[in-house]
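Thread amino acids onto this structure.
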C-alpha cells in the first residue's frame, strides 16, 4: 500500500470511523467547473476517486455514464484529468487520490507513460475496472515502478480463490461491489454485505476493504461504516452535479451532500 493511502486508513481507524471515498468524473460538466467541484469534494473526503471520462463504460450506470458524456462533449482529455489531480493534490497533501476508469485510456497512452504522469500529478492508486488480476501483467510492473497501488474489485459472487488472487495482486484497498449490477443501482441486503466483507477482511491480511455501488443516503453510509474500512459514494455525488445546471447551486448541493455522508461515517452513530 502507498504510504499516503495507508496513513488515510490508519487515521480514520484512530478517529473511530470509516474512510469516506468520494467519486466524481473529471471534466463534468466542463473542465473549469469540474475543478471547483473536485476541490470541494476533496476537502470533505478521505479518498477522492477521480473518474477518467470514457465513452463506453461497462460497470457504470446511467448517472456516471451521462457524466462521462458531458465531460467528453466539453472537450475533456486525459491531460485535463492529470491537471485536476495536480490541483487537488496541491490543495490536499494528505488526501488519498485514486484514478478510476477503463483500460482503453492507459493502453492507448502506454502504461509506463500513464503511470508516470499519474504519479507526477500526485495520484496514489489506480482502479482499472476491466483489467482483472489475471491480466495484470500488462500494467502491474508500470504501476509498481511509479509507486501506484492497483486497486482491485470483488463482488458478491467472488469465490475464495478469487478473493485470494485479488488480495495477493492488489494493494491500497479492496473495492467490494455490494451488488451484482452497475453503479447507482439499489444497494444489496446489508446483512449479506456485512458477512461478505467480514469474510474478505479475514483473508485480506490487513488490507482495507471499502464498500461501494448503491450507497445513496447517509443512513446507508452509516450502516456500511459500522463494519467496512471505507464507504464509497459515487453516483449520489455525481447526481448533485447533474441536478443543478447553475454552477453555484451544484457546488452547494455537492458540499452539503458530502458533509452529510462524512458525518455518517462515524462508527459511534452507525446502526
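Threaded sequence (271 positions):
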Amino acid at each position: 500500500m502507498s504510504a499516503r493511502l495507508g496513513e488515510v486508513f490508519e487515521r480514520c481507524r484512530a478517529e473511530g470511523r470509516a474512510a469516506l471515498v468520494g467519486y466524481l468524473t473529471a471534466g463534468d460538466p466542463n473542465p473549469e467547473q469540474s475543478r471547483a467541484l473536485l476541490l470541494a469534494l476533496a476537502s470533505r473526503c478521505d479518498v477522492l476517486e477521480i473518474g477518467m471520462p470514457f465513452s463506453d463504460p461497462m460497470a457504470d450506470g446511467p448517472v456516471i455514464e451521462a457524466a462521462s458524456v458531458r465531460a467528453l462533449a466539453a472537450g475533456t482529455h486525459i491531460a485535463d484529468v492529470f491537471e485536476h489531480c495536480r490541483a487537488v493534490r496541491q490543495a490536499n497533501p494528505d488526501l488519498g487520490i485514486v484514478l478510476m476508469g477503463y483500460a482503453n485510456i492507459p493502453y492507448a497512452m502506454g502504461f509506463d507513460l500513464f503511470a508516470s504522469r499519474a504519479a507526477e500529478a500526485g495520484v496514489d492508486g489506480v482502479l482499472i475496472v476491466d483489467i482483472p488480476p489475471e491480466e495484470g501483467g500488462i500494467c502491474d510492473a508500470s504501476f509498481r515502478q511509479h509507486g501506484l497501488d492497483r486497486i482491485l474489485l470483488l463482488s458478491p459472487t467472488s469465490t475464495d480463490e478469487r478473493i485470494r488472487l485479488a488480495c495477493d495482486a492488489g494493494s491500497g484497498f479492496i473495492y467490494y461491489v455490494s451488488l451484482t449490477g452497475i453503479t447507482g443501482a439499489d444497494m444489496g441486503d446489508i446483512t449479506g454485505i456485512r458477512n461478505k466483507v467480514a469474510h474478505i477482511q479475514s483473508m485480506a491480511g490487513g488490507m482495507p476493504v471499502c464498500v461501494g455501488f448503491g450507497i445513496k443516503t447517509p443512513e446507508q453510509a452509516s450502516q456500511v461504516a459500522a463494519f467496512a474500512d471505507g464507504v464509497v459514494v459515487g453516483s449520489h455525488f455525481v447526481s448533485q452535479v447533474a441536478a443543478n445546471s447553475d454552477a453555484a447551486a451544484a457546488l452547494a448541493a455537492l458540499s452539503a451532500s458530502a458533509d452529510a455522508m462524512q458525518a455518517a461515517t462515524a462508527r459511534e452513530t452507525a446502526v
